[in-house]
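Z., the sequence and structure:
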Amino acid sequence: MEWHCKPFDALTVSQLYAILSARSEVFVVEQRCVYLDPDGKDAQAHHLFAMDDVSGADGAQGRPQVAAYLRLLPPGVSYEEASIGRVLTGTAYRGRGLGQELLNRGLAQANGFWPNAALRIGAQAYLQKLYESVGFASVGEPYDEDGIPHIEMVRRVHH
């Protein structure tokens, strides 16, 4: 498994295809949300992802697959604050602690890009405890997005 963090223009076509496939697999198919995933924000984002070269059953080279992914958005794109979003672990990679590693790497990258900046996210409510474990606190009331309960959360800078 190989980790990458790249701005949009540095992604290869294969990487972009694998990222969009993983996002569609999790958010559109698995979670049954009918929405346009390419929302115009990807070009302004840094994309953090773990690629896994999956071999076929016969040992032949398979297509590279995204095991874990999130995007980092600068302040002023989704919120006044910087943000992380589209956080996912591929179905075949769950239960291995990869989500926690992804979040830790994402927070480190965000701190590198925007030192001392707060982060705001729109989290799926069932993941609230996970985000709280890395310093996010819920703000506002839960809301429905595409039929899934969400909560806005903010991670403030600790000096």
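The chain has a mean pLDDT of 91. Residues 67 and 92 are 8 Å apart (CA to CA).

Let me know what you think.
H.
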